[in-house]
Amino acid sequence: MTIVIFILIICIIVISHEMGHFLIAKANGITVKEFFVGMGPTLWSFTRGGTKYSIKLLPIGGACVFEDGDEEAGEGGQGEAAPPSPGAFQNAGVWARICTVAAGPVFNFILAYLLALVIVATTYSDKPVVQDVIPGFPAQEAGMRSGDLITRLGGERVYVAREIGLITMMHEGETLRVAYRRNGQDYETVLTPKKDEESGRFLLGFQGYAEYFKCSPLQVFQYAYYEVRYGLKATVKSMQMIVQGKAGKEEISGPIGIAVLVGDVTEQTKPYGIGVMLINLINLAMLLSVNLGVLNLLPVPALDGGRLVFLLLEVVRGKPVPPEKEGMVHLVGFAILCGLMLLLLYNDIMKFIVPR
Predict the structure, then answer these.
(1) Residue 107 and which of 47, 99, 130, 186 are 20 to 30 A apart at CA?
(2) Is the whole-model pTM more than 0.85?
């Protein structure tokens, strides 16, 4: 069951990403040679409207292959220049190509928002409202009290309560400026975390900071945006922690780790009913879709972000970078990404498969 759910989630996210490339390419007159989901040998395919649609053996990844040698949006690989053709990728205007490449990550964010609408409409949202303060800790000493709505923390705008935990985790032990609202009036203070001897953690002194409520029909659209925004912020901050060395290899996972997470969510929520289990899996799919969107926008060769760098250089220079040079950069980037995937796979195997 875990494997089936994992494959379903990955396929939905990948199809959304590649559908972005596909639809915008078609809208700009770019010929799509093949649209496939998965990797490896083809299991099933059909051709319609000049495009081959395929399902591959390995349920990871996918691509939208344009008429331009072996060009693939979202996968890198420049290939040799194709003969002049009205439908060739390189013959489209530069802004048409930029929109086509950027559409994959954008569609991931759109999918995330649609999933967030389902989550917010069927569950509760969390306002960042202080429930109580711990006596003798900074929040209480600064005059904060139950009912205060936190609007900013550490210079960042706060919309949902979970952002408070995210920000304090990134700035553990650091002095933070807090803006809050009480009875319609705005206040501001500075809190320096105090170490709790019992837990060994640095605390600002909030004893609960989430007020759960049911959104009105109009609020659903607003708080769905906040959900995606939180997922985006969590993804970016997680990457910052990896770069800064604050996240160990135990906290980084690849496909096996994601599959294990799907299994954990399924098993932990199953006793509460199919509805709770589905909502938690939808929430996981939303976060994974945001992750994929962000990762693909990184300016790394072989990813959409790397392709966009070359296209933006073309805008600045007034002419494209020579295809053979761009192709070499993407080839090197693809090799590095493959190496990283192997490292993640090895890390997952050592964490989840090899017995300790």
Answers:
(1) 47
(2) yes
